[in-house]
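Re: [ENG-882] Designed sequences occasionally contain unexpected residues at chain ends

Forwarding the minimal case from QA. Structure tokens:
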């Protein structure tokens, strides 16, 4: 069964997020270190929380793996990726692991 990891970067009054660095450098590190185990990746930039509502999230990265073993193998190589987070986001992201059901 396919599984996914979502990395969610919430917006607060104190957070800063560097989209240029994230897209040009960080996602490259994801590919370099974890890519052989990834089926697909989607990055969504938060632009609104509803009509006339500002976004509550800077971005969400959704990474899909064929199965738990593939995700475990990717996570075992994720040290440099995790270590890079302070270069574009000044808080701790929220992570959601799940089963892909649709």
């Amino acid at each position: 069964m396919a599984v996914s990891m979502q990395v969610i970067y919430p917006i607060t009054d104190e957070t800063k997020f560097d989209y240029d660095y994230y897209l040009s450098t960080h996602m490259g590190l994801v590919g370099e270190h974890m890519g052989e185990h990834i089926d697909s990746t989607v990055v969504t930039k938060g632009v609104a929380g509803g009509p006339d509502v500002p976004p509550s999230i800077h971005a969400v990265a959704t990474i899909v793996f064929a199965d738990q073993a593939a995700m475990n193998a990717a996570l075992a190589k994720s040290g440099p990726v995790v270590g890079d987070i302070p270069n574009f986001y000044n808080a701790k992201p929220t992570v959601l692991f799940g089963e892909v059901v649709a």
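QA comment: On inspection the terminal residues look reasonable. The longest helix spans residues 19-34. Proposing we downgrade this to a documentation issue.
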